[in-house]
Batch of 2 targets.
Target 1
Amino acid sequence: MAKTEVGPADNVPETLQALAHPGLLLVSLDRRGRPNVMTIGWGSVGIYWGQPILVVPVRKSRYTYRCLETTRDFTVNALPRKLADLATFCGTVSGRDHDKFAEADLTPSPSLRVKSPIIEECLLHYECEVVHVNDLVPKSLAASMLGSAYPQGDYHRFFFGQILAVRAEENLRRRL
Ligand SMILES: Cc1cc2nc3c(=O)[nH]c(=O)nc-3n(C[C@H](O)[C@H](O)[C@H](O)COP(=O)(O)O)c2cc1C
């Protein structure tokens, strides 16, 4: 597959579309250096501190939460449409007791600028280094959202990742 390095803002509409459906795949390393992948359906691409930043919200119950605290970098990857079902798989089982890369037949491949790998089968890859974290403040959130998103109090930590590299497949739009 022909992938080229592109700018951080070159594929924002495609990224938000994939985030909404089927979800994007967030990859980090556990403390033993094994890659783990989980699905995210929320997040944003923007500019903070004059830098391109991708923000990913990860609940404290996720194995990925521990991985991000250890590795302090991550990749975010967009699946081709034909593999969209894998977003459900990666978003319903945990890396605590599953090797999701092996079970989903996904290939971890070296990133250009971070330790966490990209997913070879995906079409778009963001490589990010954690530069800031921010915990949700329950009393500052609208009551309607607090009730619907956090009935058990499993709050998000927002990981702000400086985007250090983005690679995209040439025919990305047709295959997402
Ligand atoms: C479509 C979809 C979107 C999801 N979005 C998020 C998200 O934005 N943040 C989050 O913490 N969990 C989200 N999840 C749940 C995690 O992906 C799920 O709990 C996963 O099994 C965690 O894996 P881990 O324990 O290996 O980290 C989502 C799941 C699905 C299916």
Target 2
Amino acid sequence: MILAKDITKDGNPVLRRKSHPIKFPLNQQQQKLAHDLMQYLVIGQDPVQAKKYNIMGGVGIAAPQVGLNEMMVAVLVPDKMHPQATKPALKAVMVNPVITSRSKQDCALITGEGCLSVDRDIPGLVHRSKKVTINYQDVHGKHHLLHLVGYPAIVCQHEIDHLHGHLFYDHINQADRYAEIPHEMVLDFAKNTDKEFGSKDHDASTDSYRAVRIRSYIKNEAKTKQNVLKDNH
Ligand SMILES: [Zn+2]
């Protein structure tokens, strides 16, 4: 079982190395890794169990975060579009995941991103592709093709980044951490404005609405910091 002490922290070179592709069939250690990564997410998302084992909840975790430069990630993404849903939007252990295509349009979470391996809070828009296609193998070596939009796409990009030695804050514009990229979609689950997540086309009114919202978010950032729950990856 993965415990808090097993999570590698920013500054450990393992987080900045490129991971190695995995060959099939998985060896015993790799099978255990697949099990343990998903188990960590399941336990971490259960408040009672997370407290019992003293682990931080997360929606994704990658092998380098437990010290192994192998191309494996686990994702357990809650359905933020339907908060009442009992099923996650995405649950998978991905071996050798590759992003095979990306949308031109970007998206970012207004709350920024968090990471199990980064203890400090680093605010700012983390620019990601709004849509991605991912080719990965499951633990049996079977290939899968996934088309993801919005939040699940963001989570998978964060995890796959770990396999290439990138951390979320690498994507933040340090000169202006809330500067948007043209046509970028900014997701705000806290205020339940993620309806713009859908197929609605970009338009100017959405744009100005979003600019006001971001300004007010920055203004209230310090005040609401305590209340904004970041999802760790
Ligand atoms: Zn992370």
